[in-house]
Amino acid sequence: MFFNGKNLYIEWHEAAIPWLKLFAAEPSCKELTDCRENTLADLWRATLICERTLRDYYKPDKINIASFGNRLPRVHIHIMARFTDDSHFPEPMWGERQRADRPAAEDRAIFESKLIAALNKAGI
Amino acid sequence: MFFNGKNLYIEWHEAAIPWLKLFAAEPSCKELTDCRENTLADLWRATLICERTLRDYYKPDKINIASFGNRLPRVHIHIMARFTDDSHFPEPMWGERQRADRPAAEDRAIFESKLIAALNKAGI
């Protein structure tokens, strides 16, 4: 966990691509429509901020977003920076592997500081 | 297309599970953060209304939501009603098939009328 806000926290998913997971802080949210209004609003705003910051920093070919929770029934949103030469493109990361991993991005610290600054500025 | 709003339209994805696709009406939205504010707001509100209506009507075990667009780079959101005995559970629908399809729900017309009423009520 590198960001811990009032209504959500953010972790890296360990992967060769930049892949964030936003978790609702409320443990009782199985679905989005179980969440309180403040949690919902912050999840949505944070999703857009994560997308914007991933785009600006990593220049991906596409952003992918998903919320499943079939094994872990607690609201969490995956936000992935996808590249045409990544392991699964154009398949989703849950689909069939297409090729070897691309080299993992090393520069997480600067990205994290930019994302945290944007989230703080938005009051999340 | 069974719903055509100001900023988005909704289609069924042909599948054994209830599976909706929300498309931004703006053709130039490759990513969420490319969309106008009104489009974004309606996409989010419509996603929650779709989730709520799917939950109320089909009583799924889990809702799955995803926005990829790797092949079709135009914002569209998949909203799926998942069941523990469906073809892929607990995998995402893009993962490995686990078993045969469950019988497809036949009663789309009533669901559609309920969803359209809820979207209209919200001014979407």
List the helices and strands and how they pair.
The structure is a homodimer of 124-residue chains.
Chain A: E1 3-4, E2 8-12, E3 19-24, H1 37-58, E4 62-67, E5 76-82, H2 108-121
Antiparallel strand pairs in A: 1-2, 2-3, 3-5, 4-5
- The total beta strand count of chain A reads 5
Uncertain stretches of 5 or more adjacent residues of chain A: none
Following the backbone from N to C, one meets helices and strands of chain A in this order, namely EEEHEEH
Give the termini distance of chain A in whole angstroms: 15 Å
Q: Identify the biggest protein-protein contact and residues per side.
A: A-B, 29 and 29 residues
- Physical arrangement of strands within the biggest beta sheet of chain A: 1-2-3-5-4
Beta-strand residue fraction of chain A? 15-25%
Question: What can you see in these coordinates?
Answer:
The structure is a homodimer of 124-residue chains. The first copy, chain A, is an alpha+beta fold and 124 residues long. The first copy, chain A, has a domain of 57 residues. The first copy, chain A, has two helices and five strands. A five-stranded antiparallel sheet of chain A has the order 1-2-3-5-4, with helices on one face. In chain A, a hairpin with a 6-residue loop joins β2 and β3. The mean pLDDT of chain A is 96. At the A-B interface, α1 and β4 of A face α1 and β4 of B. β4 of chain A pairs antiparallel with β4 of chain B.
